Amino acid sequence: MKYLFLLYGPDGPLPEPGTAEATAMTERWSAATGAMARAGVLVDCAPVQPAAASTTLRVKDGEVLLTDGPAAEIKEHFGGFTLVQCADLDEALRWAATLPAATEGSIEIRPVVQVPAG
Amino acid sequence: MNDRLDAVLREHWWGAVAAVARRGGDLEVAEDAVQEACAAAVTQWPRDGIPPNPRGWLITTAWHKAVDVLRRDSLRPEREAAAWRRLADDADQPAPSRGGPIGDDELALIFACCHPALDPAVRVALTLRSVCGLSTAEVAAVFVVAEPTMAQRLVRAKRKIRQAGISLAVPGPQELAGRLNAVLRVVYLVFTEGHRASSGAELIRGELCEQAIGLARALAQVLPSEPEVRGLLALLLLTDARRAARTDSDGALVLLADQDRTSWNRAEIAEGEALIEEALRSRRPGPYQLHAAIAACHSGSPAADVTDWRQIAALYGELVRYEPTPVVMANQAVAIAMAQGPQAGLAILDRLADEGRLNQWPQLHIARAELLRQLDRPADALSAYRAALDTGPHPAEREFISRRIGGLVTAGSRPLRRSAG
Is A5 on the interface with B (CB under 8 A)? Predict the structure, then answer.
């Protein structure tokens, strides 16, 4: 079963590449996602651009409505995602807890619906 | 026949739901199927007699019904395929007979119902329904909500188990310890819900107490190396042993000190004491073992004034490390009052009362009032009893408080020593 980890944390730009802060952050994330990859559970992962770069889309009466910004204003911002393939929720929770976002913000664990092929 | 039939169905509910849920991979479908199988049993068994292996009969009948549902649901082809694979694996495996410890299926089901990803409030309700086999109406009555409301909560919880991929297998060693705490908590809450019913005039609903003891006993049998499980079972037995003495013939609460100790259940006390001694020997203490050790101090003592209150105060001191709650501190204060005199305990209770977090908890006010009464401060005691009444206590507690107030008012009208202030 696939689980999408929605990573929430403080909004803001990523640290400047080359700075000690950026290196430390990369190391923390590589350690966590590297372990996931070696265990064969990692499907994909990426940070996303800050909330200011987001556009929310809705279609109403056939018309596409766009709003600048994220869908909901909340204290913590959606900052990235991790997609894993796990046997059950317990395994997914165990991996989610290893990500830096678990201590620096919060992670919403969303099971992905299996769409039948064809 | 009907009572016996109900008892048989209730006895095999947990095992049947667990077996069908694990094979089919869906608790909601499994429970509905077992419910239908029970309905079939109610019409067939009185006519044909109870089958030699009632659980096997229920599982087979329910499984056929579950397969029909899983097949009809074309959105779930993968699940059905998985279910058939599992069925092929163990189709010929005979259903285990009852009496021995529960199997992996039953253990897995209670772990799923108590999963930390479920809302804490629904875990108790779901366990009562899916594991203990209470009807939805009975579970609704326990929580004082309308039946459709409870039905909706239960369905939502069962769907979350399916959709979130909560495993219907026993957790692996990495998860077991953390998950076990959540299970023990639910069993404890089932018991306290029975022991101190949150509503209704009847202070103790014995059936819930017995369900909780049955669950703790089953867990202790299959997890013999977990001292906290034994600690919980010991605690429930030692507490339940006082059931008959906790209320008087009018249904009013009787304080521990005033209880008729000859009416305590000696068999439960003996079993509870043996269990807690055994658990403590493993030298892996935990909150349930400490609570049980405190209960054992009471049950082993012939009267309140010869109880080892120093030991109880020390055990509460240990317990604060696991549960740093005002309720535990208040109980420690009462033990200190018994060991060192009312003034020492009152000082701690006054501080807790000033913090304000326990002001809606009638026991704090009752404990303060009792100590104030002993210190010959009737006016202060009276206002503490009134504060207890203001919290809207349980009817049995209300009755007790009203009697105490009555006693103080009567004593106050006589020329008695005035409060020392």
Answer: no
- Contact between residue B311 and residue B297 where contact means Cβ atoms under 8 Å apart: yes
CA distance A86 to chain B (A): 9
Report if residue A70 sits inside a domain: no
Total number of domains constituting chain A:
1
Whole-number Cα distances in Å, B340 to A66, B308, B345: 72, 12, 8
A43 lies in some domain: yes
Query: If contacts are CB pairs under 8 Å, which of residues 48-77 in chain A contact chain B?
Result: none
**Model's pTM, two decimal places?**
0.82
Query: Contact at 8 Å (CB) between B14 and B106?
Result: yes
Name which of B300, B279, B306 is nearest B290 in CA terms. Answer: B279
- Assess contact for B265 and B244: CB atoms under 8 A: yes
ipTM score of complex? 0.77
Nearest to B144 by CA among B207, B203, B199, B195: B199
- CATH number for position A23: 3.30.70.1060
pLDDT digits (tens, 9 = 90+) for A56-89: 777 778 777 777 777 776 667 888 899 999 999 8
* Residues of chain A positioned with their CB less than 8 A from the CB of B75: 116
